[in-house]
Amino acid sequence: MDIVSEYRSKLKTPDEAVKCIKSGDWVDYSVAIGFPQLLDEALSRRVDELTDVKIRGNLIFGPIKAVEADPEREHIIYNSWHLSGYERKLCDRGLCNYIPMIFRLLGQYYFHFCDVNVAMMAVPPMDKHGYFNLSCSTGVAKAILDKADVIILEINEHLPKVFGGFDEVIHIKDVDMIVEGEHGPLPQMPVQEPSPEDVKIAEYIAERVNSGGVIQLGIGKMPTVVGKLLADSDLKDLGMHTELCTDAYVDLYEAGKLTNELNTKHRGKGMTGIAFGSQRLYDWIDQNPGVAFAPLEYVNAPRIIGQIDNMISINNCLAIDLYGQVCAESVGLRQISGTGGQLDYLTGASISKGGKAFICMTSTYIDQDGQRKSRIKPFFNGDIVTDPRSQTYLLVTEYGVVNLVGRTTWERAEMLIGLAHPDFRDELIRDAEKQGIWRGSNKR
User: Fold this and answer.
1) Number of domains forming the structure of the chain
2) What is the CB-side half-sphere exposure of residue 222 using CA atoms within 13 A?
């Protein structure tokens, strides 16, 4: 096989490539920095020619020009598996719909239920063997490509090449079209400054992590703060098993803490599926034998996570009710992010030998009207339940840590009210009494 000739025969301009998209098609844009910027721009120039084109994305940082070119949503219907900040703003404008999912099942959703007429994603340049590396999108990419009728790859010269466990590449023979062009630098994810409450929560978690722990850090400021504290600690031989690899792991590696030497599942290797952060992160994962990428149906499988001794899962949430139900994806009915892999790791870490699953949040937030509100609520009324009360484990606010496993409803109410901001505790006690989950002997 002459792979160079085959490559040239499949090379198209972005405008030529997107001509294959027809009205009514389902088009997939992959995840995060796998976003096909040039192809999206080309599709935006065809918007008025098309109707009912449905696009799926996942943590896309934008702008998505095909969506922005159709502000009345007459031609393009955009949907996301997990909202980035940009996609959240699209939702607020009525230009995006969320697709409920659990990350470990995403590949099965595509295999059994999702049509993909055209898959478009960015990848690094082809290697000498005719393979395209799926880079930071490896966790979800192959499942999408396997289901697609037409595959268009956009060459992004800045994407890192990653080593994989499996399904981290696609061969030129399986690709229909290729697009080249110049790209700007990869998106750089800013890190927010932590509040004193964030630091306190991180301290509670860090002091409960032991040397040899294998760490999963979710999206957001809090897991990043925990990562920095662990990097500055006296801990040794930490490991990485996480759906999302961020700069926090580079901090741990550069501090000499991240070795994976005591990882009972993948000794010497950190396992992940998706990565985004700073250029420092992209440089670190580029052809790094110590980091392995694999589909999330493997990385996030509770049966795999549960085989890792001392698995430590750390994730954020937005609210919890007095029954222990966790909302990590909406404020009322307003979609903020998504389920992602939180439930996967909550389940897996809970069955790991020595494992711990932390869900953390500040006790209060300031709403759009400038009012302070409690994140601990009597009960949910519209908030989307991400984690059922039957699976909640360690919960953390700046006021402490509680373990809800095996606790009755009245014990949970007492423990959770103890994590609330003092200004809201009396009101929450009154609510618990009305709901029949407060005993007279409970602490006040």
Assistant:
1) 2
2) 25
What angle do helix axes 221-231 and 196-206 make, rounded to 10 degrees?
Answer: 60
The per-residue pLDDT for 364 is: 96
Shared-domain flag, residues 36 and 171:
yes
Q: Of 290, 310, 300, 399, give the one whose Cα is nearest residue 356.
A: 310
- Return mean pLDDT, the chain: 95
The question of whether 243 is a catalytic residue gets the answer yes
pLDDT of residue 368: 83
Residue corresponding to tokens 């995403």: 106
223 cis-preceded (ω within 30 degrees of 0)? no
Q: How far apart are CA 365 and CA 376, in angstroms?
A: 10
Domain for residue 442, yes or no? no
Q: Are residues 158 and 213 in the same domain?
A: no
**Residue 426 φ/ψ, nearest 5 degrees:** -60, -40
169 shares a domain with 35: yes
pLDDT tens digits along 302-321: 999 999 999 999 999 999 99
Q: Which of 179, 214, 237 is the last residue of a domain?
A: 179
Per the structure, the complete domain to which residue 129 belongs is given by 3-179
Query: Do 155 and 282 share a domain, yes or no?
Result: no
pTM exceeds cut of 0.90: yes
Phi-psi region of 177 (alpha: psi -120 to 50; beta: other; left: phi over 0): beta
Is residue 26 in some structural domain?
yes
DSSP 164-215: ESSS-EEEGGG-SEEE-----PPP--PPPPPPHHHHHHHHHHHTT--TT-EE
Q: Do the beta carbons of residue 27 and residue 117 sit within 8 Å?
A: yes
The DSSP H or E segment spanning 326 is strand 326-327
Query: What CATH number is associated with residue 408?
Result: 3.40.1080.20
Render the burial of 175-198: b for 16+ CB within 10 Å, e for the rest: bbbbbbeeeeebbebeeeebeebb
Given a cut of 80, whether residue 328 has pLDDT beyond it is yes
Cβ–Cβ under 8 Å, residues 378 and 431: yes
Q: Is pLDDT at 334 greater than 70 in this prediction? A: yes
Instruction: Quickly list DSSP for 215-261.
Output: EEE-SSHHHHHHHHHHHTSS--SBEEB-SEE-HHHHHHHHTT-B--T
Which residue of the set 168, 243, 297, 329 is catalytic? 243
